[in-house]
Amino acid sequence: MFRVILCFLAIILVFSEMTLANSRVRLGLEILLDEKIDLIRGKRIGLITNQTGVDSRLRSNIDILYKTPGIRLTALFAPEHGIRGERMAGEYVKSYIDEETNLPVYSLYGKTRKPTKDMLKDVDILIFDIQDVGVRHYTYISTMALAMESAKENGIDFIVLDRPNPLGGMYVDGPILEPEFSSFVGLYPIPNIYGMTVGELALLFNNEFRISAKLMVIPMDGWKRSMRFDETGLYWVISSPNIPDFETVLLYPCTGPIGDTYLSVGVGTTKPFHFVGAPYINPNRLIEELLKRKIKGVAFRPAYFIPRYSKFQNEVCKGIEIFITNRDNFNPLETCLNILDIMYKLYRKDFNWGDRSNGKYLFDLSMGTDKVRKYIEAGIDPQEIMKIWKKDLERFMMIRSKYLIYQ
């Protein structure tokens, strides 16, 4: 009887592994290596990547390309956080020689954020292969756009190895960036949450914003627009020091902009972007006001935390921890606006909109407009704010539809 049970369990295990293997998305990296390797064979390759550039077996794209016969990997390019992902947000990234491959690593988050002619002197094709988080105010897509510009200017081909949008490809929301708020945390007029893969976004950037690079996107196989990252069969690799897991990715569109105000979102704790707090907050009062609004898909608990670095370093912050209870109903921007609206009403003397860059609030740069801040200051209801940007979203959706690879 015991042997029968063991055999039955073994069959279940094998079946589960087969199901996982069959459901696993094949990345653009894997399609290139398995089916389209002739596109780069014999060419001098510059690779824009970081620690997220792995295949489904967690092998680094740097290692794979460097060791593949007939492939000439000649240069590496590092975005924000560095080629290995060890640098904190906003930290200067230096150029250096990679100790594993002896290749030059050119920083795209140091003296320049765009590959220079000298950096590209030994490059025929630039390849972009980085896992994005699906949110405009995350700098990897800006790095991609600027690198596309440089490729065009220097007569170099540009290839994007596509990867999943971890938030899925269906959900689009937020204000469209206004040109005067263009910055490295948002170059082009797209919404906060754009519902596109980096490959689709590259096609849109290239045509709509007239980059006109010689662009090729290597699509994934098996990815569907309805898929969130934990449905792909792939491993989540920490995309930056404060985005350690997929749950944080889901919360980032909500708490990322909040973190640009005079509030901590838990950066400097073991759960970055899961908290909202400050030394001056009464947690129970904040939760009481949030519960009155009956925000769907989310729950809150009173929270006390001490950031060990970043805002309010070594101070006791009081506030809330956010839990997603139903991710199909969770609207991160609705939750974000309600938290900020309550904070502005309850703590107007203590709360402020945070730091500025070139005369503009970082919050406004993240939102791509100063209207959201001004609407909150004017007492406009969060639901009404979201209705205001709906017409702009509808226009974007029409543009976006032309560049969708995965239907």
Describe the structure.
The protein is of the alpha/beta class. The chain folds into 2 domains: about 30-240, Rossmann fold (3-Layer(aba) Sandwich), CATH 3.40.50.12170; about 245-370, Aspartate Aminotransferase, domain 1, CATH 3.90.1150.140. The chain is built from 12 helices and 12 strands. The protein has a 7-stranded mixed beta sheet with strand order 3-4-2-1-5-6-7, sandwiched between helices. The longest helix has 22 residues, at about 1-25. The protein is globular and about 65 Å long. The protein starts with a helix and ends in a 7-residue tail after the last helix. Mean pLDDT is about 95; it is low at about 5-20.
Set down the secondary structure blueprint.
Layout: H1 2-23, H2 28-35, E1 44-49, H3 61-67, E2 72-78, E3 96-97, E4 104-107, E5 125-129, H4 140-153, E6 157-161, H5 198-208, E7 215-218, H6 246-258, E8 275-278, H7 283-292, E9 298-305, E10 317-324, H8 332-346, E11 356-357, E12 360-361, H9 362-367, H10 371-377, H11 382-388, H12 390-400
Parallel strand pairs: 1-2, 1-5, 2-4, 5-6, 6-7
Antiparallel strand pairs: 3-4, 8-10, 9-10, 11-12
Helix pairs in contact: 4-5, 6-8
